[in-house]
Amino acid sequence: MTRLTAHRPVFSGSVTQTALVAVFAAISLASNYAMIGIVNVKLMDTLVFLAAFLFGLRIGVGVAVVSWGVYGFINPYGADDLILLSFLVAGECFYAITGFALRRTSLERELPVEKKYPTRTAMVPAPLRTLRARIAIRLTSFRGFVTRLISYGRLSLLFGTAGLLSTLAYDVLTNFASWLFKTPSLYSALVIGLVTGAPFALVHEVSNLFFFATIAPATIIASRRLGHG
Q: Which residues contact 85 (CB under 8 A, 6 or more apart)?
């Protein structure tokens, strides 16, 4: 007797992961080139974070590597050398690690969900039932709005802080790498890199704080309501 068994496609998982990396990297690169005139203001970091949060560390790291692999060589400001590019990729992976780490916490319970609060009108006289129902609906809508607003505010603060800290780590690493072979010591490279790169780092950190506090939670909440996770 022959037993019929269903076989999953061998490469279905890898193909899906490759497609996700390609889509996120394409959006990242498109946004980078579109914002090329605004120095150190990019959506790439947020997209790497989102890729890791929504689909896992491997996807996030893949997006970071592919995005910088292309952007580092095809860039109007000039191509990066391999050593600096390796530090840039490593720094970009900080965002993937942060996104993956946050997803593995109890953060899922903080995501706003739609809740319906039942109203009891069966024992209310008919003339008053409609009025009470209307008031209950208004109060329910307002309560739901306030609940979602508070939850979104918490997420915004959390993601903004995570983005800021990740960007600080990225800027310290990459500014240090920029002077690694131009100074006599590692300490000098660190100090000079931090001082000379401070204005650019400040722009990078402020913009990422904004993107992580707004785009990241909105995207994750929308993804959850669409059924992902």
A: 68, 69, 72, 73
Can you give the CATH number for the domain in which 152 is found?
Answer: 1.10.1760
Task: Identify the domain containing residue 214 by its residue range.
Answer: 15-225
Round to whole Å and give the CA distance between 35 and 68: 15
- Tally of structural domains, the chain: 1
Within a domain: 46: yes
Cα 52 to chain centroid distance, Å, stands at 8
User: Quick check: 142 pLDDT over 90?
Assistant: no
Could you count the other beta carbons within 10 Å of the beta carbon of residue 21? 22
Contacts of 68 (CB under 8 A, 6+ apart): 85, 88, 89, 92
Domain assignment present for residue 33? The answer is yes
pTM for this prediction:
0.78
